[in-house]
Amino acid sequence: MKARLLLIDDEEQFVEALSERLSMRDYDVTTSLTGEDAIEKITNYNFDVVILDVRLPGIEGPEILREIKSVKPLIEVIMLTGQGTVEMAIEGMKLGAFDFLMKPCETEDLTAKIDKAHDRKAEQEDRIRTAKISHSTSSPRSVLNDI
Q1: What are phi and psi for residue 91, nearest 5 degrees?
Q2: Can you say whether the dihedral through the CA atoms of 128, 133, 139, 145 is positive or negative?
Q3: Rounded to 5, what percent of the chain is helix, strand, coil?
Q4: In CATH, what number is assigned to the domain containing residue 86?
Q5: How far is residue 80 CA from its own chain's centroid?
Q6: Host domain of residue 84
Q7: pLDDT for 83-139, tens place per residue?
Q8: 52-68: per-residue pLDDT in tens?
């Protein structure tokens, strides 16, 4: 199954073009042009990977990343910027970003990162599911409670 993506960037033409390219590769793409809209969508919908511009009007990328990780910590975030610095990349990684790419980037480079991020999220969800199953079957009382 292809990843459910949220693309957050204030450059409308960039968002439209990238969304179209990703949709053609069978990704399920939702877009946001503002941080506020993005946070609302993250709270109300399920995404596997977020592609987040570092520089946005209002709420900037690092703050949105913090919010994403506090609300839905398993979502993987790939940060994009046209004005990247090593410091920004380090800050994003410290806050839990999966990776960091400079704009413009090749679509193939981005899709490779998206696929790796999606795989990582799926692995984390599988580990959590396995741990829950293991915990519920290790306790005879929990088995009796389920009857």
Answers
A1: -60, -45
A2: positive
A3: 55, 15, 25
A4: 3.40.50.2300
A5: 12
A6: 4-146
A7: 766 677 778 889 999 999 988 889 999 999 999 999 999 898 888 888 877 766 655
A8: 998 888 888 889 999 99
